Amino acid sequence: MRINELKTKWTPKGHMNFIEPKSFDALEKFIQKNCSNILEVYEELNFKSALFRNLTRFDQEGVFVDVPEVNAFVSSSRNNRAPKDTPERFQKLIDGYLKKEGFKALRSNSIFCTSSRSAISQYGPASFIIFPFNSTDYTWSEKTSDLFQTLWLQKEPMPYGANTNDEKYEKLLKMGAKQFHWKYFFRKTRINQAIKKGHEVYIHGKYVAVNVKETSFLARLGFRERLNR
Prior knowledge:
Number of strands: 12
Strand content: 15-25%
Low-confidence stretches: 7-14, 155-163
Number of helices: 9
Mean pLDDT: 82
Shape: elongated
Order of helices and strands: EEHHEEEEHEHEEHHHEHEEH
Largest sheet: 6 strands, antiparallel
């Protein structure tokens, strides 16, 4: 089954398509076919945890859509994601390191998800369970649950009058790709472990997002109990 067979309602500019409850029968089959890998992971976790993404509203080039009213949607990660908190030069450097080590899911081309509900609550009131397509690429770190928190909010003594960002950038620049990789131990697989640890996961590719309020539909997929975290 293809996306266009779900009878979805496209948002302005066609960046993503909303799925209404009347199409949930087709959506169930769609997820079972195209997102079977992550369903197996969720089943291994007894459907008690998952990858979440919180949103406030969709900005479709100036046209805003209230997210709490969205039942589900199909979308894909952007290829030119602007950093929200991370200085752009840091993002480019980190992405360059990840590319050198063979990772495809980067900070600039991925959505960020985690199983920690408390960690993503600041990003909006509407919470969605994410079902990445089987072709999706992942990146996550075994050593840190949030790379931004680790790199920029750590309290390190700096020389008087020093530019904190400059000091941290130089330190990161001297580290090099391989040392950076092994210091934070990035992985492409074992997503079940990322979910168990509550670590941030970069997801590059297409995915289905279902509002956690759609409990009846989620129960059909296996989520019959309240989700952890």
